[in-house]
Amino acid sequence: MKVFFGLLLILNVAFAVFQWLVPYEQLFAETPKIEAAEQLQLLSEADLAPPPAPEVVAEAVEAETDAIAEAVARIEQEIENQRQPLVTEDTSDRRMCYTIGPVKDKARAIELGGRYSSRNVETELKSSLDKQYLGMMVFIDGHETRAAAVKTANELSAKGIRDHIIVNQEERPNLLSLGVFGLKRNAERLKARVEKLGFPVETEARYRERTIYWLYGEQSSEEEMRQLLEPADLAEGISQIPTQCLPS
After folding, report:
1. Residue 62 falls within a domain, yes or no?
2. For the chain, what is the radius of gyration of the CA atoms?
3. Which one of 52, 61, 112, 230 has the fewest beta carbons within 10 angstroms of its own beta carbon?
4. How far is it, in rounded angstroms, from Cα 176 to Cα 149?
């Protein structure tokens, strides 16, 4: 389209210059008949109008070019405006999202999901690994064989320490455990007692990996937020926490 308007511009400019230099009357006026007795006139004696200066012609061409360029720009803008949608679509997020948990049992999590789904709340079950703290273990390490661990256990029993068990771990076989204590001070108390008996005793925090479950819920923000947890759920440590909605 720009090529078409460019050709049109060149033709208009050429025609305007032609009209400027050759008046309309000279183009279409009827040629008068020359009488036989008419006296000829020399060109040097004729009263001819001087041609327009080059600066005047250039200004006229430039003015015509600017006018055509403005018209082209105006038409292109109108076409672009017609392409734009008449109504702007509302893209705001109308969701309200939250997580429900943690839940230790999968069946319990599924039951909670059904409770929310029955109230038009979309839920998704998610899981993650969690380290559960078991307590502080008191133990004696360094036995090369099980027989050596049994010997240490018998010596402890002879001195009044009878609660122990041999544990085989992949990285530490024949470990003699003297118990796991929920309270650190109880573990430190036993450690001090065994050290006084001359044994190289140690303590270490023990954990157990477990799978916990969460429910991710979505509902419309135009409705009242669903809060369907019961007192028994709250007593288990289950809560409903607002969270950022995932991309839809």
Report:
1. no
2. 50
3. 230
4. 6
Residue 12: exposure state from Cβ atoms within 10 A (0-12, 13-18, ≥19): middle
Q: Do 124 and 225 belong to one domain?
A: yes
- The CATH number assigned to the domain holding 103 equals 3.30.70
Amino acid at 218: E
Q: What is the pLDDT of residues 210-245, one digit of tens each?
A: 899 999 999 888 888 888 899 999 999 999 999 988
- In the chain, DSSP finds a helix count (H) and a strand count (E) of 7, 6
Q: What is the dihedral of CA 195, 201, 202, 206, to 10 degrees?
A: -120
In a domain, 159, yes or no: yes
Q: How far is CA 65 from CA 6, 10, 14, 15, 19, in A?
A: 10, 9, 11, 13, 16
CATH number for 156: 3.30.70.1070
